[in-house]
Design brief:
The complex is a heterodimer of chains A (289) and B (349). Chain A has a single domain, classed as ABC transporter involved in vitamin B12 uptake, BtuC (Orthogonal Bundle), CATH 1.10.3470. The model of chain A has no long low-confidence stretch (mean pLDDT 86). Chain A is mainly alpha-helical. In chain A, a hairpin with a 2-residue loop joins strand 1 and strand 2. Chain A has a two-stranded antiparallel sheet. Chain B has a domain of 234 residues. Chain B is built from 17 helices and 4 strands. Chain B is globular, with a radius of gyration of 21 Å. Classes of the chains: A mainly alpha (289), B mainly alpha (349).
């Protein structure tokens, strides 16, 4: 039982970070109907920013979120403005290819700068754990990252529901043309949405960097995971992405324990195919925040 | 009429030249480049049938490439079954995989299909890593010696040079081009294109969507598996990332997209652009050229940096190319060339 609880809890904790990645992707999809295949690579850029902040400036990875978030927001806004914006009306496969291309450019540029060596951020708490009782202990960095994720998600939720800009973003997601007729600057909303999505992915990168290897190709894994999460939750649904993230985290963690760590990703992909087959609209259907 | 005769004559001359190359060119490197070119043409052309004509953008073609390569290599290593027999087993397996994938993925449209195709390829890649008893896991399968190919008692070739591979590659490229041509000019091709242009309209005209999508996938998958098997025996080594990785799927697509989807010569053009370009980067030719021209000093920091890193950067170039092609030539090089030709014609009038 302790093993079960242990893996369940660590699954939920890592699921929080997955949720952040998924929310970013779903936000971008919701507003622009573009599937961002560079999402994992954006996360990877966030990881390297954190790595730089840690090694050059000596900033703690969790504190560096304060730098990563705004920088990645600008980076995402730039991507939207210069590249994505030009293919909004294009056929879906061209959008997909463009983002694949952008992802390749990011990962290979990083490889040129940092080489493809694995990097590690070792902090004083990297391998420390908190005893919860009942034989269950929780990894400290995972717990901190989960708390930060929850805070960010709460603020984001408030932003989307209560602020004018948030409402404008949701309006654009619901109906781009109608939103434009209502005087909403949809171009600006798209830039903000892509910026936010990238900032969330970058932040997720920063949050996992104390517990994960950092290397240029790390993005591909997370791009796929982000898709699984958002499809599971329902494309465009923020709440769905949160649920999806935690569900995937738990699935991975449980199947690593009860099946084998080599097969855990297979289990996730099979689950993904099953969802596509039987409920392609995802857990939260078509609803959007 | 004279135009078609001209075209046929040009085709025959090119074919004769290609057939004659190994007789006069002895450099293994030149032959290697040609073999890579043929391989790329057949990979791009196979994807073209499903992606270009039927409009189903599979980003998981590594699945078929990998199954073809792995089956042939596994049979050769474990059971000493020669590749020209193993390849058939590979094709049968690939059809089975393709039908399974088709029945799942073709219920989905657009982005969902893309995602499902990636997921299937990833499942296969991870399985190849984990099923160590069958596939040797992450270490991959190495086959150093190919059995000699005999007809009766006569040894046709013992695969000691690159020449037999050259002709197999050429045959494969011609085969895929031929099949694409016959698809393009048949009812099948029209059905595919109808599905690509408007699935619902095609359906209402009585075209069985799932049947024809599966046929397109089947043809495409079998040809891709042939290319995969050829890659396996030519290189003599397969491991999960090189034949089943997402990069492979992207590369297969790129050949077609850069050249021009849904056209007969697009993938050929794409291969002609991509193969030399990535090879030039990989072999440090670009750095050498920059040094020789005098732009960069070989011993300077920049020169050393380029020498060290540019070889790894050919994928970066892929990325840049894709972005440029999508933004400025969404119909690929072929579309771009056609547009230029049209413009010139208009100006002439």
């Amino acid at each position: 039982m302790a093993v079960f609880m242990q893996s369940l809890i660590s699954g939920i904790l890592i699921g929080g970070v997955y949720a952040l990645i998924g929310i970013g992707l779903t936000l971008i999809f919701g507003v622009m109907r573009v599937i961002n295949f560079a999402h994992g690579d954006i996360l990877m850029v966030g990881m390297y920013l954190t790595y730089l902040a840690f090694t050059v400036l000596g900033i703690d990875p969790f504190v560096s979120v304060l730098i990563t978030f705004p920088l990645m927001f600008l980076f995402g806004g730039f991507l939207q403005r210069v590249f994505i914006n030009r293919v909004l009306k294009a056929v879906a496969q061209n959008q997909i290819l463009l983002t694949i291309g952008l992802g390749l450019i990011m990962s290979n540029t990083v490889m040129l700068i940092f080489t493809s060596d694995y990097k590690l951020i070792t902090t004083s708490y990297s391998s420390s754990t908190l005893k919860v009782g009942g034989g269950v202990s929780v990894s400290t960095p995972l717990l901190i990252s989960f708390l930060i994720t929850t805070a960010i998600t709460a603020v984001l939720y408030w932003f989307l529901l209560k602020t004018d800009t948030g409402q404008a973003i949701r309006a654009t997601a619901q109906d781009r043309d109608a939103a434009q007729l209502m005087g909403i600057n949809v171009k600006r909303m798209s830039i903000i949405a892509f910026g936010l999505g990238s900032a969330l992915a970058g932040t997720a990168g920063a949050l996992i960097s104390p517990t994960y290897y950092i290397f240029p190709q790390v993005g591909a894994v997370f791009t796929l995971k982000a898709f699984v999460i958002t499809v599971l939750g329902g494309m465009g649904s923020v709440v769905g992405a949160m649920l999806g993230g935690i569900l995937i985290g738990v699935t991975e963690s449980l199947s690593a324990v009860y099946i084998s760590s080599g097969w855990k990703d297979v289990v996730v992909f099979v689950l993904f195919l099953l969802v596509l087959l039987f409920k392609p609209s995802g857990l939260m259907g078509k609803s959007r925040t | 009429m004279p135009k078609t005769i001209l075209k046929a004559a040009a085709g025959l001359i090119v074919l004769a030249l290609l057939m004659a190359i190994p007789k006069y060119v002895e450099s293994p490197y030149a032959l290697h480049m040609m073999i890579l070119l043929f391989l790329s043409v057949s990979m791009g052309q196979s994807w073209n049938i499903l992606g270009g004509f039927a409009g189903q953008y599979s980003v998981g073609h590594a699945a078929y490439f990998g199954v073809g390569a792995y089956t042939t290599m596994m049979l050769m290593q474990a059971k000493q079954i020669p590749p020209w027999i193993g390849v058939w087993v590979g094709m049968v397996l690939v059809v089975a995989v393709a039908l399974a994938i088709g029945s799942i993925c073709f219920r989905l449209r657009g982005p969902y299909f893309v995602l499902a195709s990636i997921a299937v390829a990833e499942i296969l890649r991870l399985s190849a890593i984990n099923l160590t008893t069958l596939t040797n896991g992450a270490e991959g399968i190495l086959v150093t010696e190919l059995p000699a190919f005999k007809i009766g008692e006569r040894v046709v070739t013992d695969f000691s040079t690159k020449v037999p591979f050259y002709y197999i590659g050429l045959f494969l490229a011609l085969l895929t081009i031929g099949i694409t041509y016959s698809v393009q000019h048949s009812k099948l091709g029209y059905f595919f294109q109808a599905i690509r242009e408007d699935q619902d309209a095609a359906h209402s005209l009585g075209i069985s969507i799932s049947l024809y999508k599966n046929i397109a996938l089947g043809i495409s998958a079998v040809l891709t598996s042939l290319a995969g098997a050829f890659y396996g025996i030519y290189v003599g080594f397969v491991d999960p990332p090189t034949v089943l990785g997402l990069d492979v799927s992207v590369q297969i697509m790129l050949i077609c997209i850069i050249g021009g989807m849904g056209t007969l010569w697009g993938p050929v053009l794409g291969a002609l652009v991509l193969v030399p370009m990535s090879e030039a980067l990989r072999s440090n030719m670009v750095t050498d050229l920059l040094v020789r021209v005098g732009l960069v000093n070989a011993d300077s920091k920049v020169g050393l940096f380029l020498k060290e890193n540019l070889a790894h950067a050919h994928v970066l170039l892929y990325g840049i190319l894709v972005v440029l092609v999508i933004l400025f030539m969404p119909d690929g090089l072929m579309g771009f060339v056609k547009k230029l030709a049209r413009r010139r014609k208009q100006e002439a009038v």
